Amino acid sequence: MPKIQLLINGLTHYGVADHREEFLQTAVGLKVVLVAQPCVQDVRCVAAYVGPMRIGNVMGDHALLAQQVLLAAADEMVIGEVTEVLPRGYNLRVDLGERPIVSEEEVMAKLPLGLGEWTTSVATMAPTNELMGRGQMLKKLMWAYLKIGDIAQVEEVTEALYREMRYDLSGDMQSERKLLCQSLMKSGDERLQQAASRLLEASQRMGGEHQMQEVGTWLQQDLAKSMEADLLVAQTRKVSRQQVVEEAKALPSDLYHHWLTDARTFARVLYGMRLAREDVLRVLSCLIWLQRTEGQEAAAQECSNEADYLVGLSLEMDDKEVQKSLEMLLARADDMTQGAFLQPLMRLRHWNEPELPEAKELPEALATEEARVLLEKAQKAGFLDERWQPTQQLWRNGKVSMAKASVLAFIIGGKLNLTPLWDPFEALWNAKDLRVAYSQAMNAQYYSSLYDEMKRKMR
Fold first, then answer.
1. I want to staple 96 with a disulfide (CB 3.0 to 4.6 A). Which of 4, 127, 269, 426 is the partner?
2. Among residues 450, 429, 436, which one has the least CA distance to residue 354?
3. How far is CA 206 from each of CA 136, 162, 184, rounded to the nearest angstrom?
4. Read out DSSP for 328-385?
């Protein structure tokens, strides 16, 4: 069994805050009881008690290990002993001795962590923002300077990372920071160990009210107005705002409510979820897109109603040239307004809507339980209809685009390891040469975004 040592912080916020100096002088040798105490900001929170007094929490970087120990304990509580008061900051090292632990997967299964199957119709923002991306760059620089032994540069990069790592709320950054601290501490060099202490200090400050208020405000005011946000809004086309609102409401831990009501709480909850960096960006992209498009819905609806009236007149005239001209105008307007004119446009296109094939039995290769699960996911995502045929999302110029449909076939076929890959889909969709269609799709401008969207929704 591994020997477990954990760090306790938060002594400045809990029961010993008003007499912490005196407490620290006699802390070594005290018995500490650790118990899970989840909160809004962190479902993994593990509290530390001396008698009836809560003295702090297991440091966030060690919270997962603490949960592994607690879940392995019969009564889900453990007792340890304070062995050291860390020289920098108000931290205690607690020795739990040799203890069994459960796997990380068991902790993940028990605690409501992560986003689950949550997804959004909004494209994912690029992580290129100066502050969002700078933390990752500084981390790489630190490893580079450590490799060549340039301690002065490591110290400078540490100070920069201390200031700017707060803008990366991902669990990835927390893990990377922990790894850096361990490497610095093991170096044996006093200056590098002081740099590690500086990073530990930054870790303690993360989650504090002042920093989280600053980060929350930055997310809603600065990041939401950045070039990355501009590109996000421009690239996310033909998406129903109401649909995105419903997706935002489905976010765990009431993230959408916190985003709308309290930027500080939102930042603290998002930080406490310890999401992968990619997932943090997905959440922010959804919420920033809603913020940036707020107020457009009513005006767009009014315009859509007027467009619907014009469509009615056009259909009454039964003039194909007039209808085609109106379709071109509405299609352009639809692109510029993220789908506000989709309904009247679809109504207008009804005159040249292709006849849909009759329902078919699934080919043998797609009639398995595993294949049906994937087909139902594609149906739920709106790519396939109740007959398993490509929907309007995969149309172009009023008819099915087999190039776009082939991307879906490639993803599903790949997950099922189909050999041959294309034959079952050609039979299902009455198509020919899907392999050629896929080659055409790969050279199209829409390929990357369509492929990423399908992969995300077919998880």
1. 4
2. 429
3. 17, 10, 20
4. HHHHHHHHHTTSTTHHHHHHHHGGGPPPPPPP-PPPGGG-SHHHHHHHHHHHHTTSB-
| Helix, strand, coil percentages in the chain from 3-state DSSP, rounded to 5 | 60, 10, 30
Residues 6+ apart with CB under 8 A from 36: 45, 46, 47, 67, 70, 76
Summarised one tens digit per residue, pLDDT across range 14-63 is: 888 888 888 888 999 999 999 988 876 677 789 999 999 999 899 877 88
Question: pTM higher than 0.70 for the full model?
Answer: no
Q: CB-based burial of residue 22 (10 Å sphere; 0-12 exposed, 13-18 middle, 19+ buried)?
A: exposed
Do residues 13 and 78 lie in contact, with contact meaning Cβ atoms separated by under 8 Å?
no
Contact (Cβ atoms closer than 8 angstroms) between residue 23 and residue 14: no
The amino acid at 271: Y
- Please choose, from the candidates 191, 195, 202, the residue with its C-alpha nearest in 3D space to the C-alpha of residue 181: 195
φ and ψ at 158, to 5 degrees?
-60, -45
For helices 320-336 and 342-349, give the axis angle rounded to 10 degrees.
160
CA 166/CA 271 separation, integer angstroms: 10
Kindly state the tokens that stand for 139: 């981390």
